[in-house]
Amino acid sequence: MAGKKQTANIYRHAELVQDTEIDLRSTVPGFAVNCNLQFMDIPALRNNFRSDFLGIILVVKGTLTISINLEEHVMEPNSLLLATPHALKQVISMDNDAILCGLSATVDFMGKIFADKLLDLMNYFSTKYCPHWQLDNKDAATIAATFSMILHRTEEYNTHTYGKELFYHSFATLLYELGGMGQKYAKINHADFSRKENLVMAFTSLVQQHFRQQRNVQAFAEQLHVTPKYLTETVKEITGKTAGEIIDHFVILEAKRMLSDTPLSILQIAEELNFSDQSFFGKYFKRFAGHSPKEYRQIQRRY
């Protein structure tokens, strides 16, 4: 079954945050949260679907029955679900009196905030591991309290002087809590099921290590002992992005960091990132960031 290709609708984050049945609070682009999700009867979730966001759900009360990659999970109080974007999902049933804590975050949102640590923190979202964890009372209370803190920080995201930083810190706290708990609760699925995903994680890890010196898909494919075509197709299937887009993503993230956080000149940054000249770097950066490096630096320094 794992090797059989599944077709499913893509449920997009923009649709999710506009759905009044779900009532997720979204004041942060690419992110939404609610600590009191109740009965939902949403046709889009009753059929198999994929999404452009990851989801984390904690059952507080009642029972939620959900299918992940065609495997049914009965979730009772203290059950935690980690649902990846590419996973095939379906809500089978939900008690009328059920209460959930839930949040959603797009892949772009995750990458912008936690690029350096993303692979380590997101390891337990891999289909290598069972997405359903049954927490003990203490750990469930910790996750519920962290959800509440995140919700509070989203409410102050645009009003508190350091609202953005406090929100990022609260969300990072949740991921670190999950990273620690994963060693206790995560169970490994059948190894063959995540072969493609393991390739993508290995590719992304290589890109993180070498994007300053190497931006050629073929070179990465050779290191992974696969063809460039297979690598590109697999990365696209798992992440929704091409291999080249993954490489560009890390380059732009690092360029933005250096423009924001270092005194290096634009020429020096271009050289650090192994561009042939400042002009080429400027055109490359503007194509993805929408601003020239100079404009981007000026915008960041206003805040």
From TrEMBL:
Q: Which GO terms describe its molecular function?
A: DNA-binding transcription factor activity; sequence-specific DNA binding
Show the SUPFAM superfamilies listed in the entry.
Answer: Homeodomain-like (SSF46689)
Domain HTH araC/xylS-type span(s) in chain numbering = 201-299
Q: Does the keyword Transcription apply?
A: yes
Q: Which domain of life is it from?
A: Bacteria
Classification via Gene3D superfamilies: Homeodomain-like
UniProt cross-references to InterPro entries, sorted A to Z:
Homeodomain-like_sf, HTH_AraC, Tscrpt_reg_AraC-type_HTH
- Keyword Lipid metabolism present in the record's keywords: the answer is no
Per UniProt, which keywords does this protein have? DNA-binding, Transcription, Transcription regulation
Q: Tell me where the transmembrane regions lie.
A: none
> What is this protein's name?
AraC-type DNA-binding protein
Q: Which organism is it from?
A: Chitinophaga sancti
